[in-house]
## 1
Amino acid sequence: MSILLEIQGLQTFYGPSQVLFNVNLTIQEGQVATLLGRNGMGKTTTVRSILGLTPARKGLISFAGRRIEALPPEQIAALGIAVVPEGRQIFPNLTVKENLIAFAANRNQSPQPWTLPRIYEIFPRLQERQHNLGNQLSGGEQQMLAIGRALMTNPRLLILDEATEGLAPLLREEIWRVLRLLKQSGQTILVIDKYVERLIALADQHTILERGRVVWQGNSEALGAQPELWKRYLSV
Amino acid sequence: MLNGVQFGLMLFLLAAGLTLVFGIMDMINLAHGSLYMIGAYLTATFVGITGVFWLGVLLAVVGTALIGMLLEFSILRQLYRRDHLSQVLATFALILIINEVVRIIWGSQPLLLSAPEGLSGPIEILPGLNYSAFRLTIIGVGLVVAMGLFLLVNNTRVGMWLRAGASNREMAQAMGVPIKPLFTLLFGVGAALCAIAGAFLGPILAVQVGMGESILILAFVVIVIGGIGSVKGALVGALLVGIVDTAGRAFLPLLLSQVASPEVASNLGPALASILIYLLMAVVLFFKPQGLFPART
């Protein structure tokens, strides 16, 4: 396995205030990694730095062997990183179908690329609503659409930021099902979520952030064996 | 009424570019009116050189689009990250500079741009109703361009990117939309639309320095009424403003003369007419503060 994403000594600021302090993170190709921590600890900021939306002030981020910390977001996306952002951020003035096809690409020549029919296959609901505008969807449908929209770019790294947040239990199950499916297909994923037990079952390695610093890193076995970590850093 | 539609459609050409630039780039470009002026001057010049109206218009549209893209690439691109005040100041400076440059090149006398000969006369559109052939042509051109723009925005990938960018620029970028080339292209399209408006309004109004500023304000009213970032809103807003403005000027003095002395009516009428569109804007904003068709929700 080769390293897909490597973050070293990442420091990110919002204006004058520092949010991330020397964050290190490595994700191998095909792995599922998580970012854990309470709200406001820097998880989303880490994602924003990877995406180039809030560029790193210091440190380096390399993706598939290329330095990306100084690239603009659209170039980073073109290299093969797609995000399912916090709050979903569906384009309200595009139809469901348009949300899916507007950004479709297969830049890395995936042999089995995601296409509109395949997205509709895993989310049949989206096909039923394909001509509706993005703002006419329920929260669950929007979440499916956000995942579909990201998959349509056939990314090498898929980032999910609180994909199950605010969803009814049944819909949450739906999302976990798709994540398992993606993992089986070899998709590299970085996931942020609150359901630690689910993440232990799904992911390979975990990183806990506390006030912008990495306080713990390890695999699922180690995290599962240390419930005191959960209490201390995740308040579960 | 037809004059209102004709003026409205030309306003739409100006407002469409302005609303996309404002909505997507979050950039206030006061120099948009200057592109309209440049378009009119280039048309007058090229028509003078070639002697063929349509060829002159075509050359002017291409020329203005190139100038627009050059402006975006060299100057306006630096302003996207600045606040609106800086943008207003910088583009206001551009207006002054462009006005002076135009004065240096073409002189301060208004240029004469006449409608093509075949279209200068009136034609009968309904039995007993004559209408200027040129104005009718303007309506036709406006409709065709509006349709083309709608196809571009609603049915192409670039159009989806534009709409996505208008509602959530950051997310569009994160999805891989090549924002910089898209902005340059968009500016070129906006400039071309300005040039078309300038070319066709030139023979009706006057081709002179400062012609861009007066119409720019109307264009801003249009996009505020229509909802910033929405092409559909720009069309509806432009037609509303065009019709209300033209009809107000034509009928208000008549209407007033029914209730007041002719002298008062002829003084008050035009004054009232010119505030009608602002009243319209105030009413629209009262009921729909985001405009009629907001792009952001």
## 2
Amino acid sequence: MFNLSRKSREALTDMMLAGPATLAMGMLIFIPVIIVAFLSFTDYQMGAKTLRWVGVDNYATLISDPIGRRAIVNTLLYVAIVVPFSIALSLLVAIGLHGMADWSPSFSKALRAAYFLPVAATLVAMALAWQMLLHPSIGLINMALIHVGLPAPAWFSDRGLVMYTLALIGIWQSVGYNMVLFLAGLAVIPQHLYDAAEVDGAVTVWDRFWTVTWPMLGPTTLFVAVITATNAFRVFETVATLTRGGPAFASDTLVYALYREGFVYFKVSYASAITIVFFVFVCTLTIVQYRVLQKRVHYT
Amino acid sequence: MRQGILIRVASTIALLLGAALVLLPFFWMISISLKPPDEIFTRHVSLLPDRIAWENYAIAVTSVPLGRFLMNGVIVCSGILFFQMLFSVPCAYALAQRQFKARVVIFGMVLAGLLVPFHVTAIPIFLGLAKLRLLDSYTALILPFATSVFGIFLFRQFFARMPKSLFDAARVDGLSEGAIVWRIALPLSWPAATAFAIFSVTAHWNDLFWPLIATSDPAIATPPRGILYFRDEEAGTDLGPLMAGAMIITAPLILLFLFAQRTFIRGVATGGLRG
């Protein structure tokens, strides 16, 4: 009798500790995911009294509509630019700062802070700063370009250029973050590997990088690549602040399209389909990450 | 040795140039925020203002309720953090230090939840809040983030490394499980707590997606949402005050970063574990 009541008392404690969070997870994550998946197969519009099952119609529209396809292609393009450039630049910066820390730790630390500043700053505010910097007539960059006799591009209104401009800001924003991850990776490479490589004839900086640094950073690089890609897939703040997907949908991205269709045009079902496509991309990326991490065994 | 020095000099120059490029938008933002209009709209752009126009900051603060936006940011971020801690920490403790049947299921939910970006749940949550007539309120800005699977995960990892004997001793001393969570487990995981707090506050201070969706009343606009009201109202004519406003809304996080660099970097980097 005592045993039973003790047992139920314990169960009550477990429920009080874990219950609220579990309930909230269900209400705020899992049920919404089920609802959004369901809505994507209906014709529901905001405020409508009824809804009808339409099968994969919304997905078909998304794929066949040039605007919908544009959002997918633009997002993939953005990810494809930001990921390699951000990784390459942040790796260079990290290697440089790591080397500098040997002879001037405080200088290295100050520079690290400078590179990290975009991560700490509010992206919407910084997007406005970029807009001023790249302003066609009063921006610093274009004034400088004109000064040296180069053409002054319309960074945000040229349909062929606007995605690259946004990607540039994306790279600028993510380098500091990736640098921190690479610095952590560099800090755990044992010095004796470099010594051994030197004995084996890897004397130049270049040789040492390819024989020791790069292979040892393999797992870090993969981790950085996946994080940068998942963040890049979510690109929204710069698009919403600077271009609103324009001009003529030239800078439309998945999350911005989901916002516009769902919350400006109230086409809930179509926006739900966009959401699911976005979700599938993000999940695929995570699965790839797990797969590769399991397969690749680095330092043996 | 000569080669070593040469490389050192070259890499230092490259790093300085890179840092200058990274800081350029900050520099330009500050420069414009201190320039009078005639120095902004000119063919002869100069890096620094000739006459420092402090009035831009006064205009920014008076023409839109910037103070209100900042206060909204503080209310929303602290509200979110409060509920996240309130829900996540006890759950993490139960998952790490107690044996019960649902444990595996709940931890599975946490891991699955880590896969779901907030954007995916935005539409149903919006519909739900609309049904409850809660849109355009602090509740709408705070409630959707009331629990953080990332927080549960982070605290669970931390609590799992603590010795069981510690908690057994506390139980022998007659402490309730709730008291153990808040008076022993949480204070002992201070590094995790500060890292999580910084991660959470930065994420929600900077977020534009949800405030743009859930609110249309400028009176409850968070700082990024508010600065866009400013931009749209002024229609691009008052650039000096706009940049002053941008400076003001990004300043709190930048100051936090500069004063607590190590903690800040760790906090934001820990957040990267979130897939």
